[in-house]
Amino acid sequence: MLQEIDQKVQQLMWDVQKRTLDRMKQSYDVNLKTSYKDLVTTVDKENERYLNQRLREIDPDAKIISEEGYGDQVNDLKGHVFIVDPIDGTMNFVMQHCNFAIMIALYVDGEPTYGYIMDVMNDKLYHGGNGDGVFVNNHQLNTPANNSLHDSLMVLNAGLTLDGGHNVREVGKQARGLRMYGSAGIEMIYVITGRIGGYLSYLKPWDLAAGMVLALELGLVVKGIDEQQVNVLSSNLVLVATKQVASDVLELVD
Amino acid sequence: MLQEIDQKVQQLMWDVQKRTLDRMKQSYDVNLKTSYKDLVTTVDKENERYLNQRLREIDPDAKIISEEGYGDQVNDLKGHVFIVDPIDGTMNFVMQHCNFAIMIALYVDGEPTYGYIMDVMNDKLYHGGNGDGVFVNNHQLNTPANNSLHDSLMVLNAGLTLDGGHNVREVGKQARGLRMYGSAGIEMIYVITGRIGGYLSYLKPWDLAAGMVLALELGLVVKGIDEQQVNVLSSNLVLVATKQVASDVLELVD
């Protein structure tokens, strides 16, 4: 049953990638959400309606949490819950036409079960979970080397770095280098492939859910900066990292 | 004469890309230069020796400035001067196997004349100058839209952002978003393609030379934060940006 859902959601991710690439060739509306730094487009909304409709066909009893408001009111993680980000990194989508992702996660009775991150412009679907491992398309990923902060590149949330809260600038200074890509999905991909040792950011459920499944499946650490396990529905400032980077970072942040 | 050199250097860029891709399949040494944040590999050195040798065949009277020490002692820009970066973004090359570039520029009697930036992993050569326009492979690029800082993503130097000098954090706060990719070549590509509105960083001659040719050819601004024209041999903190972003940023920095 779960494996059948997994196969169908993988196919859905390729279908939505193709739709998105086609849609980018036509014009679409761009609107501000909370500020001029927070955009939403017609494509976000169209993708979300499409994904939610297809997910309801695949798994009719599941609930859906999604970014743009077409999902269900969900207060707990009982049963099957899909968490959907129809375009992650909308600013990059609009300004760069690259460095954005589409993400779905399936949580079963609160357990991170399957995660899917589509790197649309690179034709790469990162997927896995449920003890099966993590794959990019058909190629299985290994657990990234357990490097220390000194031997790792870090991604830090831009606003937090500019404001200097939680002593995060010290994390940036001690890392081998600081990177910012502007899409949680792309940044999660960098961590699970070992290209970034740790990623610290404010993450909403749809930013976090898929990457959290894949990171945990690979034995990486997903923690709040209070060192507690993360609740995907109510996370705040989240660290996704190798064990050693997590230990090094959690000693520095306050 | 110059056009013949241009054709030969374009071919050289494709040759060195193929060598680099082949070389990445074998092992190579990684060494620290000035600190644990500053690496050099065997591939940097092999590429530089190869490029310099081929450039001497293409243009025997030219002088060569290059990062790893196999070039000439050059104190002025009289005649033909090639400026070579054999691997730009060596940290990314080592840690990410992507997001690095190979760059060459030709300055003639001090005039920015031809620039070449090879995005190795994406098979894309950005090249042009000398009034011919700027191309990615065979496709001509348009001048990026003259957006303001509020409507643009910015790349800021990571160390400067962490230290807070020159009021750069205010630039990051006013921009639509902050990005950091860790390679001057890749960051120059983002600016000349309009995906980033402005790039502010400390740039050595080999970091700056090729991107400066391409940016100027497209009518973008290349200035020091003292608002002076940049000398490619002795630049310090350099801004490459649309006219409007340059104006907005130069009002903010001190």
TrEMBL record, chains A, B:
PANTHER family associated with the record: INOSITOL MONOPHOSPHATASE (PTHR20854), INOSITOL-1-MONOPHOSPHATASE-RELATED (PTHR20854:SF4)
Protein name as annotated: Inositol monophosphatase family protein
Organism: Limosilactobacillus coleohominis
